[in-house]
Design goal:
Blueprint: H1 3-56, H2 60-71, H3 75-110, H4 120-129, H5 134-143, E1 146-151, H6 160-175, H7 183-201, H8 213-246, E2 258-262, H9 276-302, H10 316-329, H11 342-356, H12 371-387, H13 391-408, E3 414-415, E4 417-420, H14 421-434, H15 446-458, H16 472-491, E5 498-502, H17 507-519, E6 523-525, E7 531-533, E8 536-541, H18 544-558, H19 561-564, E9 573-579, H20 580-587, H21 589-608, E10 613-619, H22 631-636, E11 647-652, H23 654-660, H24 663-685, H25 693-715, H26 721-728, H27 731-734, H28 757-766, H29 777-785, H30 789-801, H31 803-818, H32 821-826, H33 834-859, H34 869-901, H35 907-924
Parallel strand pairs: 1-2, 1-11, 2-3, 4-5, 5-8, 8-9, 9-10, 10-11
Antiparallel strand pairs: 6-7
Helix pairs in contact: 1-2, 1-3, 1-7, 1-34, 3-6, 3-34, 3-35, 4-8, 4-24, 6-7, 8-9, 8-13, 8-24, 9-11, 9-13, 9-16, 10-11, 12-13, 14-16, 14-17, 15-17, 18-21, 20-21, 21-25, 25-29, 29-33, 30-31, 31-33, 34-35
């Protein structure tokens, strides 16, 4: 297309987005009139218009009138106004998500033969155009690996019931694009949408209780059920289609490089509700959903399996397979009765065997004892179908189902176990004391602990006894390992592979886990001296100090033969997790970014000396202040030399609903991730290090040191800061939102170090500071620039030519654009001592202005986010609608806290505060 046509098309699709937002806005207006009369709509419109005017041109008189209007609202009207703005954002988010799907479809429809940038076809085409041979492409596909791990961190503020309504509205809105709809059909759609928005208005968006762990498990399974079970195989299908197109030498079957895992029901760090029995129940629910989905596919395929032996020849293998089933199972009630339709007969036997799978009371021949047995039956059917050219049915149902079984098995997703290192040390101290091995293990030096644990590993005798009585904590610790062993037998070896240790600060923290694994038979020496280990201990390095210590810890571990034998002898792979949230909370965004990069490289070098490959697990949050960024960018942000063993990345909170609620968006996100994986693997085969990178790294080291000092001066060394944070943010109230089963603190403590990173970031997002995502960056960058033109030119060069620096600067731009210090200043009125509020606000404001200024100088832009005008425009459009919720939140917090000072409370007032929290989270598309 010529350039003018492309511009015209973009304008046309943007008009459709505006059309959808207006359409949904009008429907919401009708609901407001229906539920609250014209008075409610008039108040909402008046507040909205004043907010827009203030954004366009700040006038003191309008500001005063705006605040007066908000503060004078009758409580009942105020409650409805808050809900109106909050629901409006849900509708805008739906429209924007649908528009992303529309844009992709429009591109594919209008681009003809051209290939969309960032698509799977674009990278396969690039491999071909750069003369990457067939054999090397095979090697690339064998080497890549990405596991996306769902976590239950309490950041999804939206209830499941509300998500369901949103999904229905989204599906109906997509139908409006159908040009063949009649006038009456459009009217019926509008009536249905009006009903759905009314349903949304009349549905409570707040949970009446904290979710249980099993509630959270079911919430995670929702995404497998709704999207992932179908979308993941489509990603593989598209990759194989492109490979067959550009590399037709052979039929491709791509290895399973892209999978999902979960922490939900396995992560017990700081969550006393996650017991061994909960983990067992979680695994049962995983299997139940996997089998249910397979049965659904088989039942759907029955209608397409009417091939008759009177017309086609079926394979002998299929006939033999049916005969084996008949001998094992007899004439079951639901077996297909028409003997001339063998595929239907076989399918009904398969349905029965799926139904029996996991039932201990059924004989082995009447059920599937492993996913491999199920795949064998499917392969028999597929081969027979292709022999009489029924390729469409073979591809659409059987081949796709084979891929689904390869991806999901009978366990659906690998469940990780996670526990805090201190819990292991406490249990080990008690066990060793009761066995008379050492009176107080916790008091030993690190070297003494390593020596003792290594001896225990080399000794075949157990250190626990069923005759000894242990405390509840130690019993639970041991039960977890026994549950893992039992689960691997019941649900399949791959249902649990990794045991993560939070706050790993020494090699002994890792060895403790291996010793416990030995007690449960998960680490055992065979008669030939080899070791079989079915679960890997995975360190989680979180703070800046931990990141510094990590290479030394891994070198110590890998030098211990008993530990080294726990690695898979074929792959020699070790998983290591890096925490983005706590490192950011500990050292600030610049230092966390830098230290994580250095840790990746240094740990990789340490492992290379032992011939060990590393799979890095990146513990990114959804928010910018916790390492959040689009999936493809987070992959490409890694140093290419650290990708050899594959990648794991956490997917959590609002990221799950924004990426995986709709199939079109889920597909695009996973397609872009696949593009990034293959791109990174291609680059890693001939890594190109910029000749100036050593110089840039030295500069960056200095910037990081200055930024860390600035950050910690405020966060840790300013005696008033913690007071300012707790009083000027809704931190205490966030804990009452009932969005997660896990407490917001690791201990019942008011210490900063015990506050989890999620409520830390969530609180700053609510107040529009977004402080963790940008604070101290300006000081760090300015320490090098210092108004010197040549130094500034170096920073510009770094932004232009160094992907690490460019990603960091662009993330800072996103944070600065979402932050709003005019609104943030309002929260200062919540601080009891105005002098503290003013002093610390001015410190933050000065740093914000410095950071914005230096970034504009580095990028050469006129405004923040000029480089991404779509997002820049979206933020500008959203702000006037978020602002009223922020002002109302300050008013409500003031009232609520005044009551609580006098030991009084008001449930309705609290509810309104919580509604503003939900609404702001939806408006900014971010929690924690």
């Amino acid at each position: 297309m010529i350039e003018s046509e492309i511009v015209q098309q973009k304008q046309s699709t943007n008009n459709l987005l505006r059309r959808d937002i207006r359409f949904l806005g009008h429907i919401l207006g009708e609901v407001l009139v229906h539920q609250g009369g014209n008075d409610l709509l008039d108040v909402v419109e008046r507040i909205r218009e004043m907010s827009k005017s203030l954004r366009a041109h700040y006038v003191v008189e309008i500001y005063d009138e705006f605040k007066k209007t908000i503060s004078s609202l009758d409580p009942e009207i105020r409650h409805q106004v808050i809900r109106a703005f909050a629901i409006y954002f849900q509708l805008v988010n739906i429209a924007e998500q649908n528009h992303r799907i529309r844009r992709k479809r429009d591109y594919e429809r209008s681009s003809g033969e051209s290939v969309q940038p960032g698509s799977i076809e674009s990278i396969v085409q690039e491999l071909k155009n750069t003369n990457i041979p067939y054999a090397e492409v095979q090697e690339i596909l064998k080497s890549i690996s990405l596991e996306l791990v769902m976590t239950a961190h309490p950041t999804e503020a939206m209830r499941r019931a509300v998500l369901d309504i949103n999904l229905r509205i989204s599906e109906d809105m997509m139908k409006l694009d159908n040009p063949n709809l009649t006038y009456r059909e459009r009217e019926q759609l509008r009536e249905k949408l009006l009903g759905e928005v009314l349903n949304l208005w009349q549905t409570d968006e707040l949970r009446d209780r904290k979710p249980t762990v099993i509630d959270e498990v079911r919430n995670g399974l929702y995404y497998f059920d709704e999207t992932l079970f179908d979308v993941l195989p489509e990603v593989y299908h598209e990759l194989e289609r492109c490979l067959n197109k550009y590399y037709p030498e052979d039929k491709w079957h791509v290895p399973s490089f892209l999978k999902f895992g979960s922490w939900i029901g396995g992560d017990r760090d700081g969550n006393p509700s996650v017991k061994a029995n909960v983990t067992w129940e979680t695994l049962g629910l995983h299997r139940q959903l996997a089998l249910q989905k397979y049965e659904e596919v088989l039942r759907e395929s029955l209608a397409h399996m009417s091939f008759s032996k009177n017309i086609v020849n079926v394979s002998e293998a299929l006939i033999d397979s049916i005969q084996s089933d008949r001998e094992a199972m007899g004439n079951i009630q639901d077996v297909w009765r028409n003997e001339k339709e063998p595929y239907r007969i076989k399918t009904t036997y398969m349905i029965e065997k799926i139904h029996n799978t996991g039932n201990a009371n059924v004989s082995a021949a009447q059920k599937y004892n492993s996913p491999e047995e199920f795949i064998q039956d499917l392969q028999v059917m597929e081969a027979s179908l292709r022999a009489h050219f029924a390729d469409y049915v073979a591809d659409k149902y059987i081949k796709k189902l084979i891929r689904q079984v390869e991806l999901f098995g009978f366990h659906l997703a690998a469940l990780d176990i996670r526990q805090h290192s201190k819990e292991h040390e406490n249990a080990m101290t008690e066990i060793l004391a009761k066995m008379g091995i050492t009176p107080d293990y916790s008091k030993l030096s690190e070297d003494e602990k390593i020596s003792l644990l290594t001896n225990v590993l080399n000794d075949p005798r157990p250190i626990t006894s069923t005759y000894l009585d242990y405390t509840e904590g130690t019993k639970e610790c041991l039960d977890v390992y026994r549950t893992v062993g039992k689960a691997q037998k019941e649900f399949g070896r791959n249902c649990i592979n990794s045991y993560l240790i939070s706050m790993t600060q020494g090699a002994s923290d890792m060895l403790e886990v291996v010793v416990f694994a030995k007690e449960a038979g998960l680490y055992r020496r065979e008669s030939d001296g080899t070791v079989t280990s079915t679960v890997q201990s995975v360190p989680l390095f979180e703070t800046i100090d931990d990141l510094h210590a990590a290479p030394g810890i891994m070198s110590t571990l890998l030098a211990i033969p008993a530990y080294r034998l726990s690695l898979d002898p074929e792959t020699q792979m070790h998983e290591i997790m890096l925490g983005y949230s706590d490192s950011n909370k500990d050292g600030g965004v610049i230092t966390a970014n830098w230290e994580l990069r250095m840790a990746l490289q240094d740990i990789t070098e340490a492992a290379k000396k032992f011939g060990v490959k590393l799979k890095f697990f990146h513990g990114r949050g959804g928010a910018l202040g916790r390492g959040g960024m689009p999936l493809n960018r987070s992959i490409l942000a890694q140093p290419v030399e650290t990708l050899g063993g594959g990648i794991k990345i956490t997917e959590q909170g609002e990221v799950l609903s924004s990426r995986y609620s709709l199939q079109g968006i889920a597909y695009r996100s996973l397609e872009q991730a696949t593009f990034a994986l293959i791109t990174a693997s291609k680059l890693s085969r001939s890594p190109q290090r910029h000749p100036l990178e050593d110089k840039w790294e030295n500069i960056m080291r200095g910037i990081s040191e200055q930024a860390q000092t600035k950050y910690q001066d405020l966060i840790f060394r300013d005696e008033d800061f913690l007071t300012f944070f707790k009083e000027s943010t809704p931190l205490p109230e966030i804990g009452e939102l009932n969005i997660g089963s896990r407490p917001s603190k690791r201990k019942n403590s008011d210490k900063f170090e015990d506050l989890r990173a999620i409520p830390w970031v969530f609180s700053w997002t609510q107040t529009r500071y977004l402080l963790p995502a940008w604070y101290a960056a300006g000081t760090g960058l300015q320490s090098f620039a210092q108004g010197n033109e040549s130094n500034l030119a170096v920073l510009k060069e770094m932004y232009e030519d160094w992907s690490f620096f460019r990603t960091m600067i662009d993330n800072l731009q996103m944070a600065l654009a979402k932050a709003d210090l005019l609104i943030a200043k309002e929260y200062g009125s919540l601080v009891k001592e105005s002098a503290i509020a003013e002093r610390i606000f001015n410190l933050i404001k000065d740093e914000y202005e410095l950071t914005s200024s230096i970034i504009l100088q580095i990028t050469g832009q006129q405004e923040i986010l000029d480089n991404v005008p779509v997002i820049q425009e979206s933020i500008k459009l959203r702000n006037p609608y978020v602002d009223p919720l922020s002002y109302m939140q300050v008013e409500l917090l003031t009232e609520l806290r005044a009551l609580r000072e006098n030991n009084e409370d008001d449930a309705i007032l609290l509810r309104e505060v919580l509604l503003t929290i939900n609404g702001i989270a939806a408006g900014l598309r971010n929690t924690g």
